[in-house]
């Protein structure tokens, strides 16, 4: 990476605002620390340096930034985390190895699609005849692909209109040169989180996913072809297209090869064409690698999503020992409804140690009340009510997936109150 680029330690990526570093020449990194400016977290250079050598470069990952201030006195940048590329080669390699065992199934899958290219009734006939040889192998590959589709959608958390559209239309265009009125102050229509960066336009012939025959689109999707999305969702649209239309795209590749064979020798028998294509190991291996790479990319996204859940450190102070502060990492969060009509916010202890069991309290009030539930790494749980001896620092506004909670305090004790469901994550 050239001088002037920004990097972050991979081990720091589990922090919401990790320190970032700027490459300074060939051997140094200058540190940039986060600070708050009008409610936005920016980064400012400080007089702290670290070594930048071939031996330690593998522990860093390049990150995108936007320059906000750059003069002789200071440089201020914004860490564009949502635009950060996913780099996890180990996860890719692991996934590729795990799916290599499906090569025989995939070759029959391709044999099926070559046969469809040679005879447009082939798929319909094998389904009518329930030909187990072909159908069992096609089903095997389709099930793996469907599973990856589901994983990607769980990570992306798109609105149904986009996922349905991408799943219906096999082709798309990206337009990145957008007029100001289409992107200024507008959020991605897919995730509602990041600013608009790309226009996605869907097109092509909808088809039956079983027989690959053309069909009419669902009326609800017929007009849904144009979306303004962020850079991250645009990349995921491209990936989702590959798995949602995998069979169709593989069929197109097979049809091209069949057309080339027929063009070179119009009299060549269909069986000869089929056997010649199945004997082309380099081509088959490349198709298999293409499909497995898409699967692996989704595995990587899912892995990264699990590893980089935004975290926030919440301090609880034990009143029996005022100097002792316990830190809890909000990296695993959920909202549950208990039998006592109370909501609980789950999070993991930062240091993995069990909480003080003396603080265990259950709410028994008839009306809904709210309390923290701390699930320790050890598997033991304790429930910390605002009325028990731990003192919750206040005021503190905490927004986590599925719940917005406000820490408030009166003259007697702090309280935790639910404000509204949300998928945002903020704190101040």
TrEMBL record:
<feature type="domain" description="DUF4211">
    <location>
        <begin position="89"/>
        <end position="212"/>
    </location>
</feature>
<dbReference type="Pfam" id="PF13926">
    <property type="entry name" value="DUF4211"/>
</dbReference>
<dbReference type="InterPro" id="IPR025451">
    <property type="entry name" value="DUF4211"/>
</dbReference>
<protein>
    <recommendedName>
        <fullName>DUF4211 domain-containing protein</fullName>
    </recommendedName>
</protein>
<dbReference type="GO" id="GO:0005634">
    <property type="term" value="C:nucleus"/>
</dbReference>
């Amino acid at each position: 990476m050239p001088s002037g680029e920004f990097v972050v330690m991979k081990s720091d990526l589990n922090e919401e605002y990790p320190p970032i570093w700027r490459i300074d020449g060939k051997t140094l990194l200058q540190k940039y620390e986060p600070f708050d400016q009008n409610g936005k977290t920016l980064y400012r250079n400080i007089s702290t340096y670290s070594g930048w050598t071939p031996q330690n470069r593998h522990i860093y990952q390049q990150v995108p930034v936007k320059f906000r201030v750059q003069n002789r006195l200071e440089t201020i940048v914004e860490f564009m985390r949502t635009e950060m590329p996913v780099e996890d080669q180990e996860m890719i390699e692991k996934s590729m190895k795990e799916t290599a065992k499906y090569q025989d199934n995939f070759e029959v899958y391709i044999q099926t699609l070559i046969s469809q290219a040679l005879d447009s009734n082939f798929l319909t006939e094998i389904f009518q005849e329930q030909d187990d040889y072909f159908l069992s192998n096609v089903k095997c590959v389709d099930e793996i692909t469907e599973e990856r589709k589901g994983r990607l959608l769980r990570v992306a958390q798109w609105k149904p209109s986009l996922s349905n559209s991408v799943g219906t239309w096999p082709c798309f265009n990206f337009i990145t040169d957008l007029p100001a009125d289409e992107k200024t102050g507008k959020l991605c229509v897919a995730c509602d989180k990041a600013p608009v960066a790309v226009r996605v336009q869907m097109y092509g012939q909808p088809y039956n996913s079983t027989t690959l025959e053309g069909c009419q689109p669902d009326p609800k999707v017929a007009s849904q072809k144009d979306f303004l999305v962020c850079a991250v969702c645009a990349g995921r649209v491209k990936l989702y297209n590959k798995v949602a239309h995998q069979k169709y795209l593989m069929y197109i590749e097979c049809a091209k090869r069949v057309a080339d064979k027929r063009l070179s020798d119009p009299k060549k028998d269909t069986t000869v064409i089929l056997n010649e294509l199945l004997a082309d190991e380099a081509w088959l291996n490349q198709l298999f690698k293409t499909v497995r790479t898409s699967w692996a990319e989704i595995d990587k996204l899912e892995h990264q999503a699990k590893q980089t859940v935004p975290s926030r450190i919440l301090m609880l102070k034990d009143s029996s020992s005022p100097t002792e502060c316990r830190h809890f990492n909000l990296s695993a969060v959920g909202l549950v409804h208990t039998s006592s009509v109370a909501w609980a916010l789950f999070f993991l202890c930062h240091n993995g140690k069990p909480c003080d069991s003396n603080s265990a309290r259950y709410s028994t009030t008839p009306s809904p009340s709210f309390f923290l539930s701390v699930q320790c790494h050890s598997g033991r749980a304790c429930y910390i009510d605002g009325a028990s001896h731990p003192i919750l620092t206040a005021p503190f506004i905490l927004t986590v997936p599925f719940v917005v909670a406000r820490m408030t305090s009166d003259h007697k004790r702090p309280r935790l109150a639910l404000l509204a469901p949300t998928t945002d994550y903020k704190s101040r």
